[in-house]
Amino acid sequence: MSDILEFADRFFNAVEGGDIDAVAGFYRDDVTVWHNFDNLDQSRDDNLATLAGISGRYDAFAYVDVRHTAVEDGFLRQHVIKATVGKKTVNVPAVLRVYVDGGQIHRIEEYFDRGQLDVVFS
Fold first, then answer.
1. How far apart are CA 96 and CA 34, in angstroms?
2. Which Gene3D superfamilies does the entry mention (predicted)?
3. Which domains does the chain carry?
4. Given Cys at both, which of 24, 34, 76, 117 links 69, Cβ 3.0 to 4.6 Å?
5. How far apart are CA 27 and CA 12, in angstroms?
């Protein structure tokens, strides 16, 4: 169990740090990333592009109040997305179900209120 939680930490540290090459190494080629706000599956390339754009969208971006729970085929991740643009900062709770097989992520299901992130742009 500690191995999968260490895996989770390394993965999200790479995401938060903007290390897209490292993130790509965690993904299987056929990974899908689903978001509740649009009910669509993102491909590997689309998701990597989304993650690569974080640094251009926000002045500051971090995951806080992080909790992981190991499950049989991956892990659950709860965190709060803390994003700042100019003088506006939002804190958006999120939950992710991450499926891991053979040491790589093959599916992520992410739940958060996208509208709360849009607050920093209005």
1. 10
2. 3.10.450.50
3. 2-121 (3.10.450.50)
4. 76
5. 12
Positive or negative CA dihedral for 10, 14, 15, 16? positive
Q: What is the pLDDT of residues 20-75, one digit of tens each?
A: 999 999 999 999 999 999 999 999 999 999 999 998 888 999 999 999 999 999 99
pTM above 0.85, yes or no: yes
Q: Among residues of the chain, what percentage have pLDDT more than 90?
A: 81
Predicted pLDDT at 1:
63
